[in-house]
Structures are given as structure tokens and as C-alpha cells.
Amino acid sequence: MDEKYILVYRLEGDSVAELERLAAELESVAGIQPE
Questions:
Q1: H/E run at residue 15
Q2: pTM
């Protein structure tokens, strides 16, 4: 697992939905928006 995701996981507890939301935002910022 990527270190930054480990850090977010530790900060957010076990909020999988929050992790998925953050991942979607990161993809959006990176321009990797799946259609």
C-alpha cells in the first residue's frame, strides 16, 4: 500500500468511503477521470 494512503487511513480511522472519495479526488486532479 502506498505510504500516503496509509497516512490517510491512520488519520481517518477505518472510513473506507472517505478513502475512496479521496482517491477519486486525486484521480480527478491528475486528469485520470474514467468515463
A1: none
A2: 0.41
